[in-house]
Design goal:
It is a single chain. α3 packs across α5. The chain is an all-alpha fold and about 90 residues long. It is about 55% helix and about 0% strand. The chain starts with 6 loop residues before the first helix and ends in a 9-residue tail after the last helix.
């Protein structure tokens, strides 16, 4: 089992994840709302690698226009991308 991120590291990670492109921020905010209490150090490392990308490259990955390549093509990145790409669950279907 992977170690959970401590509160201080989580706070730093959230600050690091602030982006200039609103669309990226929306994906990132949703990710933190859903997974904030269960983010592992492995997932944090994957998220850090994603944050090294330019905004448009990150958006292409989040929208599944392309898949990770090169140095970013790592299991922890793919894991975080999978979580970030998940659509919102339908809460009250009619």
């Amino acid at each position: 089992m992977q170690a959970l991120l401590d509160a201080r590291s989580l706070s730093r990670l959230k600050w690091r994840c602030r982006r200039g492109l609103l669309e990226n921020d929306l994906f990132i905010e949703r990710f933190f709302r859903r997974h904030e209490e269960t983010i592992t150090t492995r997932q944090a490392a994957g998220l850090e690698l994603l944050m090294d990308l330019a905004d448009n490259d990150l958006l292409d990955l989040l929208l599944a226009r392309r898949e990770p390549q090169g140095d970013v093509d790592r299991p922890e990145v793919r894991e975080v991308l999978s979580l970030m790409r998940r659509p919102r669950a339908i809460e009250n279907p009619i």
